[in-house]
Structures are given as structure tokens and as C-alpha cells.
Amino acid sequence: MNAARGSLLGIEPLDALEILKILKFARSMNPHKPRALLKGKRIALLFYEASTRTRSSFEIAAKALGAYTVVVHASGSSIEKGESLLDTGYTLRAVGADAIVIRHPNAGAPHLMASRIDVPVINAGDGMHEHPSQALLDAYTILRNKKTLKGLHIAIIGDIFHSRVARSSCHLWSKLGAKVTLCGPPELVPDVAVTLAPNLSITRHMDEALRGTDVVMLLRVQKERLAGLKIHLPDYIARYQMTTARLKIARRDAIVMHPGPIIRGMELTDDVADGAQSRIIEEVHNGVPTRMAILARAMGRMR
Ligand code: CP
To answer: Which of 48, 52, 162 to mutate to test the pocket of ligand 1 (most atoms within 8 A of CB)?
Structure first.
């Protein structure tokens, strides 16, 4: 596939050096000190799925770099009338988009777009496949708190099977030398998940996942999905909800992360969400400089 230079379709195709380069550049980005790196460029934000964090931070990031943005949602656009993904891409290109940021429920949609449209395409989440900008902003957050990922012990808990964030993050953490423990019931963390990347292991027990852990990442768990899998909600909460008592098993300086949206009372308690070890709001905050770096890279302006 010949994606335009600067496209970001996933973490899996990137090497550690490129990931570190993006993260280093992100550290030099300050949304409060706008720079004209993308002055006059037009960034199309094409969202076929709901989003709060990703869409708003890409838009703020683009504007902080001097770009114009146009936001197209599936509802209220000609996508509702049946226009195809590629015809929508050709249309955005024809009106002058210099880059397309796309979120789509189907895995591979950004790759199809990138194979046919001659502008950089940035994957803002495709089905259960990847969410590379989220993995990068989470790595940025970890590095601001822990200095290095090499040798770090990270536990990721919840619905890993359906999570594009888990997929991208496991690739990234593994490439940068962290040890990752996946934790949850077999329906949400199948044994095969261990083959996703090197340095992964699986446990079904929170105590085991949390012992000696530096970073705990929680993932959203949907009640309807549990019901569909015949997992009894109170049993799930009893076994896998992150509580203050459970957090004490992790290292004293462990941080708690969650890509959002969080469901309080489900995957975590209020105490954990709002506690001193939580970095959930910091992750959202770090989305802007990280996405500034991703957009600058897309336009060949990452130095
Ligand atoms: N983490 C994340 O992708 O959040 P949104 O769905 O709100 O963009």
C-alpha cells in the first residue's frame, strides 16, 4: 500500500526510533504558544463514530499550528445518503484538504483511504484494530511520570479483546521495552492475546496483575457486552473493578490511566478516578501536544 508520507495508520508499522522521535517532538509542542508550522493548511476531521477527546484535541492541535479545520460527521453529511468512504475522501481532497484524520467503525478504513487518496491519512481509531494517537499520548503521559518505558511493568485491565487502544498500546510498550500483563476474564482477554506483541503475559487475577506494577491502565467495559457474553455484572465488578484497596497492591508510585470515556462504578471507583495516582485528566491534556506533533509530522514539519 502506498500511503502518503506522514500518514499514521498504526503503531505496529513504526519502529522504536520513529515512536521516540514523535514523542520528543511532542514535548516541544505547547498549545498555549501557537506556532505557524501548518499555516494555511487544511485538515479534514472525518468522524464516522462518536468522539469527544480525539476529535476536539485534533481540532485544537491543528488550530494551534495555524491550520484550518473542517469537521465531517457521519450524521448530517452525505455519508447519511449512502456516499462511500472513498467518494467522501475524494470529495474532501477536491475541496482542498491537505490531510485527513479519520475515525471509522471498520478496521482498515484509514488504510483504504490512504491507498487511494494522495494526502496523509491519520487513523483516529479504526474498529477493533488500532488507535495510534491514543497510544502515543499515553506513552507521552507515562514518560512525563516515569522517564522511561524500558523495564517498566504495565498492567492493562478490562475489555482488551475489543479495544483498539489496547492493541496500539501493546505494540508501543513492547517496542519500547516495557513488560505488559493483560488481565481480565477469558471472554475479554482470550489466551491468543498474548501473541499480539513480545513481552506480554496474561493473568485472570487482579492481585497478580497489580503486584510490582508501575502503570495500571484500565479499559472501558460495556454492560451490554458483558450481558451478551453471559458475564454476570456483579461478578465482573467483584473480580476486576479497580478500587483504592486494590491499587495498594501496585507500587506506591504507580499511576492509573484510562483512555476514556470512563464509566465510574464499572471499571473503577470514584476514589480511584479522582485520586492522587490518577492521570486520566493528564492523558486528555497531553492529547493536544501529541496530536500537534502527529499533524506536524503528517505535513513534513517535524524537525
Ligand atoms: N480515547 C478516545 O478515543 O476518546 P474519544 O472516543 O472521546 O475520542
So the answer is: 52
